Amino acid sequence: METKKIELLAPAKDCEVGMAAINHGADAVYIGGPDFGAREKASNKIQDIEKLCRHAALFDAKVYVTLNTLLYDNELERARKIAHDCWNAGVDALIVQDMKLLELDLPPIPLHASTQCANLTVEKVQMLESLGFSQVVLGRELSLKQIREIREKTTVPLEFFVHGALCVSHSGQCYLSQFIGNRSANRGACAQPCRLPWDLLDANGKVLIKNRHLLCLKDLNNSAHLEELMDAGITSFKIEGRMKDADYVKNVTAFYRQKLDEIFARRTDLKQASQGHCQYNFEVNPDKSFNRGFTDFFINGRQKGIDSPFTPKSMGEYIGEVAWCNPLRMEIKTDKVLHNGDGLCFLNQDNELVGLRADVVNGFTVSCNRPHGAQRGAKVYRNYDIEWQKQVDASTGNRKIDIDLTLAETETGYELVASRHCEERSNPDKKTRTLDCRASLAMTTTQCDKITANNPEKATENIRKKALQWGDTPFNPVNLELKFNEPRLIPASVIGEMKRDLVAKLTEELIENHRNNREQRQNHTLSGMDVCQTSLNPDEIPNRLMTCHHCIRYANGMCSRETGQKAEPLFIRNGANTFRLEFDCRDCLMSVCSMAQ
Predict the structure, then answer these.
(1) N or C: less crowded end of the chain, CB within 10 Å?
(2) Are 71 and 35 in contact (CB under 8 A)?
């Protein structure tokens, strides 16, 4: 049975965050290039991307650059140059939306179809596969059943978001920000009007719901469905968050690394897509990082509670309830350890988010320097754990590649050889075992006098101790085989110099191996089809400003299927902006439309 590689794909705001993602278990990272990424404030210089590529290549991890905005014709030449610069820097693939790129003179770099291409149907994925895309990022709205159907009728590798912020609109089909403030989501400049508070009105102008975040969704968390998604055909699991800082990326990446490794430990048909394993000196817990509460969205079909109507801000981890309080103090019924300086929050009686700082903590009693406004029974969340934050900020991930060493004598001295560690894995039936083993990676030699050991046992012990200590290098020696004609005494300085030389050679060899193995691009043209016909005009704003799987009627108990009433149009209003909501009850879709329609 062929072992399937599973990729954990993490976001990188910059080179530093990208390296933190790799160090905490990512098999690949995606990062913005110098221009034309779908987050205009997350651009990076080619020199920084090249640095990230070298670090990732050491672990056979990949770097993908986002080139996924819609482009004007006068930008195509710059986009072409960026593509070539990325290829020369060691980038493994480009994530793109605009199909005009396929007609350019691109380097032999794989192209991934961005989720902004609205990859929601079998037909769309088949078209992208026929165009030569080497990976397709599916829409977040798909269910397991729909993913299975796409997998059964296509062969292109499939990528799927499993964690992070959710766009309420189908990706690539949101024009609300562009309509309101000329900040186009398809040009990387979304102002996120979906996170604003809105009033809901009926056709007569009556306010049905006032000042609620009606378009704001909770954050995605599909960690409970990873194995189901693998079996449905997903091979790349993507974490959203190219504007997130390193602490978020470290924690969430480590969480999914642990989840995937638990699956790999009992399934020999699956394995990690890169090399190396990590150790963490902090509590790995996604609740502690920015989140608006979690949902698994539509993975198992439509469900209530996917929205976050009361706040677009982070709630953090739920820690307990207010047992009693006065204006400046509260006692929290919790099993968590609280610290001076922790950030807490709760929803008040008007369902408004209130934040407070735990200025002084005494057990479960929190004192504040200003009135907090909490009531007994209020649910309390911690959105800033000061002690945890210190630990995650200090974490390096300590990612290591296991190696086996052979130290042998030669005619003129010694040689030290490093090879991949031979990993023994149990098959599910536990009757046979499989060795995952590779040939030697690098070797170093030294010329020196060979000294016969007077105390063989002590000399051998010292050699082993020194040879197996690799400190803060990326390598972890598991086994050491000694091949001597007779017991030898080797000075520590000789072993130390050999190790330093071997680390340098191993590093360069692994990076070079990764670069040599980069996939060649497939044919990016489709006979008989004008690719540009599938491209969108960056300036065009249709009357249908959003197409959403999220339905405000369904979320608020007004679904026509549930009530038996006809789904009349509703309206949402924020300040001077009013938009018409239309409902396709047959396909369970909601549209946000301009009043011009």
Answers:
(1) N
(2) no
| Contact between 175 and 194 (Cβ < 8 Å) | no
Q: How far is Cα 38 from Cα 174, in angstroms, rounded to an integer?
A: 13
DSSP state of 117: G
Packed helices 15-23 and 246-264: angle between N→C axes, nearest 10 degrees: 30
Q: Which two tokens stand for residue 380?
A: 């309390």
What's the per-residue H, E or C state across 218-276? CEEECHHHHHHHHHHCEEEEEECCCCCCHHHHHHHHHHHHHHHHHHHCCCCCEEECCCC
**Could you tell me the two tokens for 446?**
């030294």
pLDDT in tens, 122-166: 999 999 999 999 999 999 999 999 999 999 999 999 999 999 999
CATH 2.40.10.170 residue spans of the chain? 315-394
171: number of Cβ within 10 Å: 24
Contacts of residue 344, Cβ cutoff 8 Å, sequence gap at least 6: 319, 355, 356, 357, 358, 366, 380, 381, 382, 383
CA dist., res. 542 & res. 488, Å (int): 80
Integer Cα distance of 288 and 77 in angstroms: 43
CA neighbor of 38 nearest in space, from 174, 185, 170, 150:
185
Q: What pLDDT score does 433 carry? A: 46
Rounded distance, CA 452 to CA 455, Å? 9
**Strands of the 198-201 sheet, one edge to the other:** 207-212, 198-201, 570-574, 577-584, 589-593, 544-548
The residue count for the chain: 597
What averages of pLDDT result for each successive group of 10 residues across the chain (597 residues)?
Answer: 92 97 98 89 93 97 96 96 97 96 95 96 97 97 98 98 97 95 93 97 96 98 98 98 96 98 96 96 97 97 96 96 94 96 95 94 93 93 97 95 96 95 61 56 94 95 96 95 95 96 96 84 48 70 96 94 85 96 93 85
Q: Which fold has domain 315-394?
A: Thrombin, subunit H (2.40.10)
Beta carbons of 584 and 569 less than 8 angstroms apart = no
CATH class of 4-172+217-288: alpha beta
Asked if 506 and 420 count as a contact pair (C-beta separation under 8 A), the reply is no
Taken in order 181, 184, 189, 191, is the CA torsion positive or negative?
positive
- Are 12 and 91 in contact by the 8 Å Cβ rule? The answer is no
CATH code 3.20.20.70 region(s) in the chain: 4-172+217-288
Instruction: Please answer whether residues 149 and 122 qualify as being in contact, where contact means their C-beta atoms are separated by less than 8 angstroms.
Output: yes
User: Is-contact 156 170, C-beta < 8 A?
Assistant: no
Relative to beta strand 234-239, strand 423-426 is unpaired
Residues 6+ apart with CB under 8 A from 458: none
> Phi then psi for 388, rounded to 5 degrees?
-65, -40
